[in-house]
Amino acid sequence: MHVERKITFCRICEATCGLQVDVADNRIVDIKPDPEHVVSKGYACVKGTRYASTQHSPDRLLNPIKRIGNEWQDITWDQAIREIASKLNELIATHGPQTFGHFVGSAGGANVLAPMFRGALYSGVGSQRMYGTGTCDTMNKFRVNEDMYGSPMRLAHPDVGNTDFMLILGANPAVSGNTLYHLPRAAQRLGAIPKRGGRVVFVNPRRVESAVAGEHLFIRPDTDIYFLAAFVNEMIRIGSVDQERVDCFMSNFDDLAKTVQAWTPERQAEVTGISADTLRELVRSHDEAAGAALYMATGVNQGRSGTLCFWLLECINAISGNLDHRGGTLMGQGLVDMAKQVTDDPQMMTSYDRDDDFPTVSGQQPSGMLADDILSGQVTALIVEASNPLLACSNPDGRLDEALASVELLISIDLFRNEVGDLANYVLPATSWMERPEIPYALQSLAGCCPTPYMIYADPVLEPPPGVRHEWWMYTRLADEMGVTLFKNKALSGLAKTAARVAYRPVGKLLPGPELLIDGMLKSGGLPGRKKMTKHHPHGLLLAENHGGNFLGTDRVLTPDGKVDLAPHRYIATFDEQVERLFESEKRNTDRIKLIGIRQMRRMNTSSSNSPNLVRETTNYAYLSIQDADRLDVVNDDIIEVESESGKIEIPVRVTAEMMPRTIAIPQCWGHKNARGLRHAAKHPGVNSNLLAGDGPDNIEKLSGMSHLSGILIDVRKRA
Ligand SMILES: Nc1nc2c(c(=O)[nH]1)N[C@H]1C(S)=C(S)[C@@H](COP(=O)(O)OP(=O)(O)OC[C@H]3O[C@@H](n4cnc5c(=O)[nH]c(N)nc54)[C@H](O)[C@@H]3O)O[C@H]1N2
Ligand SMILES: Nc1nc2c(c(=O)[nH]1)N[C@H]1C(S)=C(S)[C@@H](COP(=O)(O)OP(=O)(O)OC[C@H]3O[C@@H](n4cnc5c(=O)[nH]c(N)nc54)[C@H](O)[C@@H]3O)O[C@H]1N2
Ligand code: SF4
Ligand SMILES: [Mo]
Fold first, then answer.
1. Cβ(183) – ligand 2 distance below 6 Å
2. pLDDT tens digits along 672-687
3. Kindly report the CA angle at 173 between 168 and 175, in degrees rounded to 5?
4. CA of residue 88 to ligand 2 center, whole Å
5. Closest by alpha carbon to 692, among 673, 674, 713?
6. Is 185 in contact with 43 (CB distance < 8 Å)?
7. Where are the alpha helices (DSSP H) in 355-468?
8. Which atom from ligand 1 is nearest to the alpha carbon of 432?
9. Which of 60, 175, 385, 387 is the pocket-test mutation for ligand 1 (most atoms within 8 Å of CB)?
């Protein structure tokens, strides 16, 4: 057996760690961390090193399949594309283009080519109905970037290697691999901050794994808005504002100051669980640090005020003089200036094109409206790509199952027949990241969200099975068959369609495919093309360090006046309308329990559940504090009933000192009870905590369309 070692990088999470993959006969023999990768330097987690069990799973789909009643039939790609295109044209002719929806999941974010072709198909058809788990994840940040800096993709990242003070709210980078900026070896790199005399403080309702790198403070879920408002107010009171920088480079400081003036450290303490003294001490320490950065992620994004929270957090970074400053937060430079480019793309800029008052942000409509939009007849055809929204999204009492089952034409593009696939009319098998040529995530590669700037390109490690296809190919073939022009350009559209038509014929092997676009991206960044990158820089190529001082006062600030907007008027209005009101209800509910989620090292959302080498537990558990367990009279393995306004579940208990009292954590993305195409997952289904999350207008954050998935009020009792 001839074993060949190939160097690549993992695309399961945003850490994109370097990997060495030993391959024989087009199968993975072994995966190890790549010790020579320029940033991950020999780190990789178990999800990456055990990917073979997903890649070579006996459940992997190897041909397109079509559902006829309860039976599945293997069909050819010609038949699949022909039948789907014809049904789509029929539905669009009857109901108009908005009837054709799309839903993309997190794995779609790792794919650099698919989004261009997916976007081109939908804009060619004229449909804006593109949803995704982005509105379960992080759309609030894109909204704020657009309003403060002029583009959704102008995203600042902490200068982890040089900072003296980092405050991290609602994130657990040591397990999650971090999100929206590139930080492999997160535990080690954050742990280096206290070692060099700085501080890292985790603000989190759970004492998370990452907190071993620094300090930890409990905060009551979904109260970060009061903490952040008081932080800004206290900064202004003690004179921790870099007034010169604010005057030169920022607008509307007075409106910001006025908005937060009622929020004293004492007032926030009434609901957050963080004392006034602790907050004052943090603000002083932040003020004294030579470079300081605040960062937040999904735990705060998924609350009811995710956009307002990120706005205030970015204001703290900006008015303290830390934005665009070494040791603070930096604006990276990618291969191209994607942030500038998307400002010319109406699909990517915030619009209010729906009938309700929810925005489309960065190309995504609220996933929390999907069931409503389907059940009201607005969406009759839906492609779900790389996602399992039935488990990942709010699904009050299974309403999304009911909605997806009623879609006239449902298509799942996936490696497996997951729960959505099971309801679909067609499942189209896609290539895995091991089978794709790629550069890392767009935010890393094209927007430069990288504290250690570098670039890597990897050829496919494996030949895809003969019956699976890349997503770019599927979208292009559908466009061809439907008669849709791609890229609003007949010549380009013709080229793409020809490339797709011949891609799987012998002649296709001789012709360049869309990988050429990756060459184009590398070369626009002044780097060698793919061939030279693999030959000379297989472990990545370090790029010039970012020292700051390259953003404020330059044409990279894309707002109309070239200044950072510290008080977008919609935010002030929303703050005034919402924050006092929610504070009152918060005070009324201090005794009640709130629900949050947990990411687990061996599971990537729903995607790892079918891997016997990763998931051996038979169920997920509800984690609760010792105080709550005493009060509820439960011990480990007792079953509790958990009820919210939207649903009810039963789940076994684990008692732990990690949890803040009056808070329960349940690992999300479990609940594979209908997983007929995922045989291992079906053996350990666990419980879907998103049956407790509401959907529809009352459960969606108005500025970004984010679903309310964390900090949900619940009632808990021991099962009789
Ligand atoms: N309560 C609660 N709910 C949450 C969250 C939370 O914190 N709390 N987190 C939310 C977040 S941030 C997210 S992103 C979502 C995650 O949910 P999703 O975005 O749906 O992601 P996954 O479950 O990882 O992936 C779903 C499918 O992608 C398929 N897949 C994997 N790789 C590929 C590929 O290369 N191509 C294709 N076509 N398919 C592929 C897998 O087989 C799987 O069936 O969950 C959200 N739900
Ligand atoms: N192992 C693993 N890695 C993953 C994933 C996975 O499923 N498994 N998913 C990937 C995806 S899609 C994403 S988006 C990223 C997300 O990356 P992270 O955002 O770092 O994800 P989490 O680990 O869920 O961290 C969220 C934290 O918020 C806390 N929290 C919950 N509610 C609140 C609140 O109201 N306030 C505060 N301050 N904290 C709160 C939770 O206790 C939790 O520790 O992770 C990615 N990486
Ligand atoms: S941390 Fe993320 S990128 Fe690194 S090996 Fe694990 S799953 Fe892959
Ligand atoms: Mo996510």
1. no
2. 988 899 999 999 999 9
3. 140
4. 37
5. 713
6. yes
7. 370-375, 389-392, 399-405, 419-423, 442-445
8. 35
9. 387
Query: Ligand 1 pocket: which residues have CB below 6 Å?
Result: 105-107, 133, 136-137, 298, 302, 385-389, 392, 413-416, 418, 430, 432-433, 597, 604-607, 668-669, 689-690, 709
- Sorted by where each starts, the structural domains of the chain and their CATH numbers stand as 159-332+550-570 (3.40.228.10), 587-718 (2.40.40.20)
Q: Of 588, 207, 118, whose CA–CA distance to 385 is shortest? A: 118
Ligand at minimal distance from the CA of 106 is 1
**pLDDT at 588 exceeding the cut of 80:** yes
Whether 197 shows a pLDDT value over 80: the answer reads yes
How much is the mean pLDDT over the chain? 97
Tell me which residue of 367, 388, 412, 430 sits closest to 129, measured CA to CA. Answer: 367
Largest CA distance in the chain: 72
Q: How far from the centroid of its chain's Cα atoms is residue 325's Cα?
A: 26
What is the tens place of the pLDDT at every residue in 23-47? 999 999 999 999 999 999 999 999 9
CA distance 465 to 468: 6
pLDDT confidence tier of residue 1, bands split at 50, 70 and 90: confident
pLDDT band at 699 (very low <50, low <70, confident <90, very high): very high
**How many CB atoms are located within 10 Å of the residue 638 CB?**
16
Q: What is the pLDDT of residue 509?
A: 76
Ligand 3, atom 3: closest residue by C-alpha? 16
